[in-house]
Amino acid sequence: MKRIGFATFVTALAVACVPSDNSPSSSEPDTPGVVTVVARGLMFDAPDVIPSGWTTFRFRNESPVVHFIVVEKMPAGHGVEAHQAEVAPVFQDGLNLLVAGQVDSALQRFGDLPAWFSEIVFLGGPGLTASGRTSQATVYLEPGTYLLECYVKTDGVFHSFNPDPDTYGMVHQFTVTEEPSGAAEPSATVRIEISAAGGIVMEGTPQPGKQTVAVHFIDQTVHENFVGSDVHLVRVTQEPDLEALERWMDWSQPGGLQTPAPAIFLGGLNEMPAGRTGYFTVVLEPGDYAWISEVPGSLEKGMLKRFHVPEGDD
Ligand SMILES: [Cu+2]
Q1: Is the distance from CB of 160 to CB of 47 less than 8 angstroms?
Q2: How far is CA 263 from CA 178, 182, 201, 281, in A?
Q3: What is the distance in A from the centroid of ligand 1 to the CA of 152?
Q4: Model's pTM, two decimal places?
Q5: Cα 248 from Cα 252, distance rounded (Å)
Q6: Distance from the CA of 95 to the center of ligand 1, in angstroms?
Q7: Which residues contact 249 (CB under 8 A, 6 or more apart)?
Q8: pLDDT tens, 174-201?
Q9: Which residues does residue 279 pair with via DSSP β-bridges, in sequence order?
Q10: Nearest-10 Cα torsion for 127, 246, 196, 90
Q11: pLDDT given for residue 18 in this prediction
């Protein structure tokens, strides 16, 4: 779960996933810095040890529902055990209380989060990715202990809460070593800036084909649902209910971030600290799309923006 700021908590707090070929290629051979993560059921299959430096997470969603991956650099001495003992149950209890309308009790429960929780650094990772698709995000990783987490919900339970270790397992610890990956920083074909004042701003008109999108976090904000600004890509196939989509993106709503998703998600980049740049790769077909952040009021904040990809020149 992402960064939290109680002072900002002012608000009390559910289509088809049609696989097609606008996923980045998953048939490329092993390349330096590429880490494959597979979602099966409500579990992650991912490596335990990887090199440092520019790291591309290639996320293959073989599960029937939508997921994302948040990359979290943990404070020294804390890993998945501490997360499962001291963080995951607090968020699940808090959510249950919010859904029951007991906001004060929820706030009180969130107050049980350990002090080290605020030292977790959120370093991007592939955005929401529909069933049957592959998405890809690239970020720079220093040596240390990390978690991969998905806190999308099914039946009111966060995928990273893991009440039943044989069913829920969407939190995975891995070590980033001193050995460099040797991978170069990606070269972007599309640029996005994200900020509190400007929302999501894209430069130019993306063309059909494989695009590498650079996301520059001008600043970072703790939104009303505690999460930071991020960017996810939605394929718009019919006139969308933007307000319903906006509401679904907010985990603190009863049906928010809960499977099934009301739209087709093609990846994106989860939150990063101010000043950082991360990348994601997507194959765009001509048609309509939207960028959206998993925050309340995304339309008003400029963090839900539609765009069109024209037919190519040839
Ligand atoms: Cu998930």
Answers
A1: no
A2: 40, 37, 21, 19
A3: 5
A4: 0.90
A5: 9
A6: 16
A7: 232, 256, 257, 292, 293, 294, 295, 298
A8: 999 999 999 999 999 999 999 999 999 9
A9: 138, 214
A10: -70
A11: 34
